[in-house]
Amino acid sequence: MKKISINYLIILLFCLSACGKIEYTKMDSPAYLRVFNNFTYNLTVENKNEQFPIFTMLIEPKFDGSGVVTGAEVIGDFLDKRDYYAPPYPSHIGNSTSVFNPEYPGKENVLVGPVLNGYDLSSWAQVPSGKRRVMFVYRPKSEVPFLQLPKQLRSKVLVDTVLNLEKGEVFTLHLLQKDFNTRENGMILRQEQFHKMPLSDSLVYVNIYNMSSKGFWSANAGFKDKFERMGMLNFGIKDVMNVYYSLVNYDQGQGQWFDRAINGHNKAFMGTVHRDTESSKVHPYFSFPVFADAGSNNISTKIWQRFFFLPPGNSLENYLHYELYNDNEGNFAIVNCFENGLVRPFADWGGAAMLPNLLVNVHSGTYNPRTFGTVNTLEIVNGKVFLTTVQRKYAPPVY
To answer: What is the pLDDT of residues 202-228, one digit of tens each?
Structure first.
């Protein structure tokens, strides 16, 4: 019998270990949860005594005799500040060398939500349903897992509460700063409704929230975050703002955007947004057609969107001259939703925040590209704007 070389055994053991399966905890009658850390500040000389805004989520935590966390039924570690764009699929898994997570589940290898009423919930995690104790604990920005940190670094609590996570329901949880001056912090748990609504495939939907801290827009500019500026949104917007929108044809000529705006969808009133860091109520969805251009082939389009924010009682026409100015005391802001996947803090021209298009163009069936409508949420938080997109399942490409 031939001897098996030691090198062969090492290779065999390596292959067996590399093929190990991830063991998931089975969930009976789960709820579906997605978590965003909306804290936007960076530590500077002015706020050096504050806790760094990175957290560990604990559902049904366990403690030792001295009250220090020793485990939990669900642990979401390394919850860092959110990305500007939360796409309609779990884009973070396998695409990063960092342990820090811009959302939960994000990079976590956990059981996720199904396709529910046609909507892809793979960006929501399955969690135990029912009334559950939920904690968010500050942690240092290090790569040491939470339960391996020294005890003194596992005891600073942001939130400790009981949430009713009803089975089969879809929840989005937001950590945020409620008051800019007092530094009061908290959270909002929103029970989503989009998967229960009779939404049309031929329309794009968007709702808007202003979750900025009380007193942020009126505070002295020197106390506001000096990083990752977003043009006209730099210093925040006032607590009550009207919202208008324009749809712009990307392919139609090389003139100014307003020369390419689509009739019937130019500077059109959407509604009024009130600053709110308390209510969990879902805001109404506004809609516009996927193929709004009369000349469209109803297969694909490059239309993009502009959203304008200004105080009630003011004319949009009177504010458009502010487009080249970044500081307008919270009276005016523009958000552009432009190309697929494009995120820039603000444009090189006009000071508008730049986020991805609300229309998704992908290879589907025999068409490459084909345009699909989505369900979207825009959230303004302390001088920054974030976009979350949810999408129905669509046919895979045919080559």
So the answer is: 999 999 999 999 999 999 887 887 666
Q: How far apart are the first and last CA of the chain?
A: 51
Cβ proximity of 175 and 55 under 8 Å = yes
pLDDT: which is higher, 26 or 265: 265
Decide: pTM greater than 0.85. Answer: yes
How many of the other CB atoms lie within 10 Å of CB of 394? Answer: 16
What sign has the CA pseudo-torsion 372, 293, 230, 241?
A: negative
Query: CA-CA distance, 334 to 323, in Å (whole number)?
Result: 8
Work out whether strand 375-381 and strand 384-390 pair parallel, antiparallel, or are unpaired: antiparallel
Name, in order, each residue with C-beta under 8 angstroms of 320's C-beta and a sequence gap of 6 or more.
Answer: none
Tens-place pLDDT, residues 25-73: 567 899 999 999 999 877 665 666 678 899 999 999 999 999 999 999 9
SS3 state at 76: strand
Do the Cβ atoms of 185 and 108 come closer than 8 Å?
no
The residues, ordered by sequence, that sit 6+ positions from 210 with a Cβ below 8 Å of its Cβ are 237, 239, 241, 273, 274, 275, 276, 379, 380
Say how many residues make up the chain: 399
